[in-house]
Amino acid sequence: MTAKKKKNSEMGETPRSLFELRNLEYIHLDSNNLSGSVVLDEFSKLEKLKGLSLSFKKLSVDFKTGFTAPELKELGLGSCNLTDFPEFLKYSSGLWQLDLSNNNLQDQIPKWLWNSTSETLLNLNLSHNCLTGFEGNPVILPWARLITLELNSNMLRGSLPVPASTLHIYSVSSNEYAGEIPATFYNTVNLTILDLSNNNLNGIIPQCFENFGVLQLLKLWNNSFHGDIPRMGSNTCSWLEGIDLSYNQLQRKLPRSIAHCPDLMFLNVGNNQISDTFPAWLGVLQQ
Asked: What is the Cα–Cα distance from 106 to 104, expressed in whole angstroms?
């Protein structure tokens, strides 16, 4: 019998003895009940530190002026009551993973953030903040190797930034993005999750979705897309598990090519203007 993995539930304040372990490279204290305040500068004593994650809901992280971490590869400060981007990230040129989600970050994503991480960052999570856009309004996302981008639940405005060809997860739901999906967007053929839901996007859903060969989840609900639902090409259907196109202005009929998606488990096209007969042909899908 396989044992269940238990959630860690350490309580109290961060132990002071932690800063005496000078050879520590990675510190992961996520999902605990640790409370109080941590002054991040104290971690500067750990000169070999490469990974630091303090993401939990009861901890506040404070900064002074002395924290530097030039070798830092991973940083997780989700739910740490941050109101500003940590400026020491200007000098963290080797960062792979950054999580600043569930804070109170305001205004724009600063240009210095991507100047320092443009060639190294793989995973970025800035979801659930109060961000309004990117400083300088770049048309193309400025991270050349980015795999995961999570910007959902902010106040981001303007046109959708075009992802790099390396991106696998593009999640910008619950923002204020407007306009059409840029044509150059569809050069990103490695997407597995595309979530543009709950924005102010409009226009038609381009047919080139059928070229997304590894797409697993497509969520475009609660926008103002109109026209036909694009057909699903044989490449797209291979992995697709979920489609949510509800609360748009889509018309005409369901494309019969949906029946060729063997792993499809979820389909929602409610609250559109579709005129069709009941899709009994979907009964061939076993999932």
From this structure: 6
